[in-house]
Write a structure and sequence with these properties.
This protein is mostly helical. It has helices at 3-6, 9-13, 22-44, 47-50, 54-83, 94-130.
Length: 138
């Protein structure tokens, strides 16, 4: 398989595409299964209770959700391709799946690396400011 072959419309839009290189075929299966297993394990194991920060815990659970969906949809698409189901085994369906995964990873990274530290800085500044204000009596 060469790069010009990947750029042809028949490679992506063929109703019953020919099988890809066996190594690549098994690699898609393994990656999809690992994503599904990692997402499922993050839900089942007590990962949430070990993370004290609420925002980080939400990002970790959202990433687990992304992995679980990516793995399940990848396994379904792999099953369609393996069984050579007409129309549903088109390689075109992998493009939106990968684009969705990249968008979600970017969103999680942005939240983890940019938004959460900004929220903590703002919270620290607000607590520093409110330290001298009178507290409400209970």
């Amino acid at each position: 398989m060469t790069l010009p072959h990947l750029l042809t419309a028949s490679f992506w839009f063929s109703q019953i595409p020919p099988p890809v290189v066996p190594f690549f075929d098994r690699g898609i299966l393994v990656i999809s299964a690992v994503f599904a297993a990692a997402g499922l394990l993050a839900y089942l194991l007590p990962v949430r209770s070990r993370i004290s920060d609420r925002f980080t815990r939400e990002v970790v659970m959202a990433a687990a959700n992304t992995l679980l969906w990516m793995g399940c949809v990848g396994l379904i698409l792999y099953g369609f391709a393996f069984e050579r189901v007409p129309y549903l085994s088109m390689r075109l369906f992998w493009i939106p799946l990968v684009m969705w995964f990249v968008w979600r990873v970017w969103k999680h990274w942005k939240m983890l690396a940019i938004e959460i530290p900004r929220i903590h800085r703002e919270r620290a500044e607000r607590e520093k400011f409110e330290k001298w204000l009178p507290k409400r009596k209970r």
